[in-house]
Amino acid sequence: MLDEIDATETIGIRLADRVAEIFSRNQITPSIALQELQQLQAEARSLAESLAGITTSFAKLGIGKEDLEAGECELGVLVPRLFVDNLLGNFADELKDIDRILGVFSELTLGSRPGFEIKTISSSDLSVFLQLTPFVAAAVATAIERIVALYKNLLEVRRLQGQLAEQGVSKENLSGLENHANTIMTQGIEKLAKEIIKEHKSNVDPGRKNELSIELRLVLNQIATRIDRGFNIEVRMAEPERASEQDGTSDAETDKLFEQYAKIQDATKSMQFLRLEGEPILRLTDGKSKPDNPGIE
Fold first, then answer.
1. Cβ pair 135, 257 in contact under 8 A
2. Using an 8 Å Cβ cutoff, are 138 and 264 in contact?
3. What is the DSSP letter of 82?
4. Distance CA 113, CA 187 (A)
5. Dihedral-angle region of residue 111 (phi above 0 means left; psi in -120 to 50 means alpha; beta otherwise)
6. Average per-residue pLDDT for the chain
7. CA-CA distance, 135 to 141, in Å (whole number)?
8. What is the pLDDT of residue 244?
C-alpha cells in the first residue's frame, strides 16, 4: 500500500537509510549533504500535507477511524497475497487455519472454542480483523511477542543466506544455515509451548492436556512460519473502565481486565513489521504444510 501511494521512500526505515547514505559517501561535503537533506525534507513535507488533507476531508465527510469501546479487543492479520497465490480458495483455507490457531488459545484461556466474530475484511491487502475476548487476545499477543523475539535472532542468518545465494552458493551448501535456524526456532517453540501450558494449566481439562500441548506446538509453528513469510499480526485493546455500582462489575473482574490490557500493551511493543531480507528460512512441521513448501497444500 505504501508503494502504491509512493510513500515507502519517505518514511520509516527507508528514510533513515537514505539519510545515513547521504552522510556515508566518502567525497561528500556539508553543503551537498544539506541540499540532499533539504530535498528529503521537501518530500516528507509534501507527503505529510497530502495525508493531512485527506484526514481533514474525511472528517468533513463524517468518515472517522474505527475506535474500540472500553475493554474491547481485536486481532488483525495481514495475509501476503503471494502466500495464498492470490487465489480465493487458498485465502479461504488460510482463514480456516487462522480460526484453528485462535481456537487453541481460546481453549487454553476459556476452556472452549466458541468461534470469533468478524469485524472487518479488507481486500486491498487481504487483511481480516476479528473480535476477541481480552483473555484470548492477551494469550495470543504474548505468544506472538515471544515468537517474534525468537525470530529476531534469525534475521541475520536469513540475511546472510540471501547474500550467499546471490553470490551463487548452492542451496545444498546453504542447508547448514537453514538447519541451524530451524533448530533454534524448534527448541524455542518447544520451551514456549511448555511455558504457555503451565501459565494456563488451571483452565485446561486434565484429559485434554497432552492433546492440547501437541496442538499448541503445531499452531506456534504455524505462527512462526507465517511471520517468516511476511504476515503481520496485531492485537489491540481499548483501556477498560473502572468498576462502578451501576454496571454491576466487581473490582476483581475489573482488575483482571486491566491485567489483560497491560499484557497486550507490553506485547504490542514488539509486534511490528519485521524488516525481512532474503528468502524465508523456516521449514517447521505445522501439521498441514510440507516442511519444504512455503505455501498451502
1. no
2. yes
3. G
4. 28
5. left
6. 87
7. 10
8. 63
* Percent of the chain as helix, strand, coil, to the nearest 5: 60, 10, 30
Nine-digit cell at 60?
A: 468533513
Q: What is the pLDDT of residues 200-212, one digit of tens each?
A: 988 888 889 899 9
Q: Which residues contact 184 (CB under 8 A, 6 or more apart)?
A: 150, 153, 154
For the chain, what are the domain ranges?
Answer: 8-60, 73-268
Determine contact, residues 91/85, Cβ cutoff 8 Å.
no
Render 164-198 in DSSP notation, one character per residue: HHHTT--HHHHHHHHHHHHHHHHHHHHHHHHHHHH
pLDDT single digits (tens) 122-155: 877 899 999 999 999 999 999 999 999 999 888 8
Question: Running DSSP on this structure, what letter comes out for residue 77?
Answer: E
Rounded-to-integer distance, Cα 270 and Cα 192, Å = 16
Q: Cell match 509451548: residue?
A: 193
Are the CB atoms for 160 and 177 separated by under 8 Å? yes
Question: Would you state the cell numbers that stand for residue 230, as one nine-digit string?
Answer: 511476511
% of the chain exceeding 70 in pLDDT: 92
Return the pLDDT at 195: 94
Confidence of residue 263 (pLDDT cuts 50, 70, 90): very high
Spatial distance between the Cα atoms of 140 and 106, rounded to a whole number of angstroms: 9
Burial pattern 90-101, b for ≥16 Cβ within 10 A else e, equals: bbeebbebbebb
Helix (H) or strand (E) holding 105: helix 88-110
Could you tell me the pTM of the whole model?
Answer: 0.78
